[in-house]
Design brief:
two-stranded parallel ribbon; 9 strands; 371 residues; 13 helices; Spore Coat Polysaccharide Biosynthesis Protein SpsA, Chain A; alpha/beta
Length: 371
Amino acid sequence: MSLLQFVILLSAVVFVLFGLDLYKRKKMNVLHFVVFFIGGAMVGIFALNQELLNQFGNFFGVARGADLLVYISLILLFYFYINALNRQTKDTFQLTKLISQTAINEGYEENKDKIAHRKNEWEKDDFIFNIRVYNEDASVVSDVIDEIIHAWFRKLLLISDGSNILQTLLQKQGQYPNEMIIILSHTINRWWWAANQTWYNFVKKYWDELKIKRFVGFDSDGQMNIKDMNVFMQYIHADQKLWLDLENKKPDLYLGSRFIGGSKVENMPTMRKYILIIAKLVTRIFYGAKLTDPHSWYRVISLSALRKIFITSDGMHYANEVNEQIKKYHMKYKEIPVHIKYTDYSLKKWQKNSNSLKLAAEMIYKKIFFR
């Protein structure tokens, strides 16, 4: 026996023992153990008899048995990589859930008196604006909050997602003591949809106490136009009159779109336009949602729709989760023209075209491989 054969045989024994130990500690299931055991046994046998290895390869039409082992190893490596990635993804879900729930509980305790004594005075009090803030420019965030308040919308739910400008948010809260500005703070940054998960769960839990009828998604980077809310409200009023006696016929969601008549988009990069067109096609193929603008966050959502939406993702896959559930639960929706202004600031901060590649990879993984 050569030194190489001895090393390979020893590695095979270690491989089998390692699998047995993991199985006893319930770190793997029966299938994984069988793969470890059979794989280790095969490596040990082939280390002692190379001719048997070649015969094994010939059975599968491969000239050299060693090549077949390489192919099998690559397949198994990919399988175990996906399995490890699934475990890691589930762990991140649990971490996000913990951070989100902590933020909800602490935020409610800090604001429960303000919520309890709040009285609606006009129709705009039926809406609550939800804004995620992560290391934004303080002046930009301040302007966004001012625009909403000055448009007489007086209920805001701000998610300080591990942000370094929490002090700015607290200052705005102090500037408008008569408005209901609620701040929920994540102890560490959990990315886009984790903030949305916190919004959704907070609003679902305290909907009645908040005295609201609709939930508004709004960005903190200055791209959205608060005047578009007048258009949303016009459509809502029209549908209320049209379906006065048929409550189940009213749309559950009003979705902002950059690609229908009446919309206006300023300074959108050409490449971004092509990426969004592709995103629309992919969303229709993978998720069945026939939306003209599946990645617009300017949305007005009713309680009936919000109760159906369940969010797990804390990455860039967030929009696809909602689009998939719109189709799954047959939610009624109407797309509304909106005005979006791309700025150097917003493009530099979050609107990188490379994000589309990350989104595509995450979408394929979540749709095909995640279990």
